[in-house]
Amino acid sequence: MSFRSAHYTLDAMGIKRLTKQRKAVLEVVRHANNHPDAAWVYQRVRERVPSISLGTVYRTLDALVDDGYLLPLTHSGEATRYEANLDGHLHLVCSKCGEFVDISHPLPDLLSGVKERYPELDIHAVQVEYQGLCQGCRTRLQS
Ligand SMILES: [Zn+2]
Ligand SMILES: [Zn+2]
């Protein structure tokens, strides 16, 4: 696959097309409730922008992450998924299908006590992740 793209030419048409693609990609991720990966986004965006390439979808997702519209969700060995809900919720990562399920639950302050105890370290974030089975995988295993 070639990553050279006419969408980056600086003519007015190119800029307009890029903006339209960017909007389409962002809307697809926002309306998805499954933290989609690039391949899934590509299938959906193509319904609206048939000329778009998978390479453009990847670049657009990267740009939306850089600009703070999306958060990348990574898990070892899995394709990066994208989060449009930036309210700081947690996730359960399904050990069977790799899906990220939203979990809204208040957490105690996990950072300040540890920072006091380890002043020699520069700790700036903590990640909490639930592990288990999503509803779909759980139902399939029971039937
Ligand atoms: Zn699952
Ligand atoms: Zn989420």
Q: How would you characterize this protein structure?
A:
Helices cover 41% and strands 13% of the residues. The longest helix is centred in the N-terminal third of the chain and has 20 residues, at 12-31. It contains 5 helices and 5 strands. The strands form 2 sheets. A 3-stranded mixed β-sheet has the order 4-3-5, with no helix packed on it. The protein has a two-stranded antiparallel ribbon with strand order 1-2. It is an alpha+beta fold and 143 residues long.
List the helices and strands and how they pair.
Layout: H1 12-31, H2 38-48, H3 54-66, E1 71-73, E2 81-83, E3 90-94, E4 100-103, H4 112-117, E5 129-132, H5 135-142
Helix pairs in contact: 1-2, 1-3, 2-3
The structure holds zinc ion (2 copies).
One zinc ion is lined by residues 94, 96-97, 99, 133-134, 136-137.
TL;DR of this structure?
The protein has 143 residues and is α+β, with helices and mostly antiparallel strands.
